[in-house]
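User: Can you predict the 3D structure for this chain?
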Amino acid sequence: MLPIPAFVALVLGYLAFRTFLSEGRLLLVAFLAACALQSGMVALVGGYGIGWLRFVLPVSATLIPPLAWVTFQDALVSRLSVRMMVGHLAAPAFTLFCRVFAPETTDVVVPLVFVGYGAAILVLLRSAADMPLARLEAGHVPVVIWQILGWALIASAVIDILIAMAFATGNGEWTGWMISVSSSLVLLVVGMLSGSPSASGTGGDEGQEAAAPLPQTSQEDVAIVAKLEDFLKREPMHLDPNLTLARLARRLHLPEKRLSMAVNRATGNNVSRYINSWRIRHACAKIESGMSVIEAMLESGFNTKSNFNREFLRETGVAPSKWSNESATRTNVTSIGKAERAP
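Assistant: Here is the predicted structure, written as structure tokens:
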């Protein structure tokens, strides 16, 4: 009984409210709220016949890609000033201008805005080895999720073009299922985005591949990694689950990209994997001292069990539970041996 866009609007509104209550970043809340508002207006136009909103829909739609971009930048790349954020209002402002003075160009402008911002996200993700503001414990997941979002923006532009073509060819009845598909796509992507804290750089390390060592390893790279190792021995920042590349580089007085490249070249791993190796070694020592697996996980800077298990298996070749059992067995054998040797 409820139009699909209305259902999507309710779900997105709930996700925005939940993100706000969990003290998520305000830009992410604004992005979710904008998606919810857009779905709600689509429902009012298509499901309830409120025609005057048709004028507003293209303008409000072009607010979503800039919001996605600034949310992405603020979460993973760099903090944006208010002036830089306001500058991205040029897209909806230009769409409004076209809507008033050249309405026939709107069907071209809106898809171009979606494609432009979607492509910009994908290009930046492809060119950057590490996301400076992403928590290192998150691994590759934030990049994957934002890649999906970038492609979703481009897919939304394709759907807009198909809808415009349907109306132009007198096949307006096709638009119903097209809108349903696009709404479902938005629901899927935004659900992934807000259902996991990975939008701001936390979460698991699924799908992460080790970075191949680069042939240009220099003495400076080796020296930087040695400096990093000495620093972590003195100040175990790797045990902080909120550690980011930006924080680590700042403490070492190095540019983020320089630190990332040095670790990649000298160790063959990216910074996330390198830090997780330190965390796993710490967890192994804690387990061998008698600490439970869960306690060792939390003490070592991991927030998610799946990521901990995966990294533990990669580093040691066995699961944490097996390592714990073997450690207990070694301890018992040692205790029995001491007892037998006792007078």
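The radius of gyration is 25 Å. Confidence is low (pLDDT under 50) at residues 202-215, 332-343.
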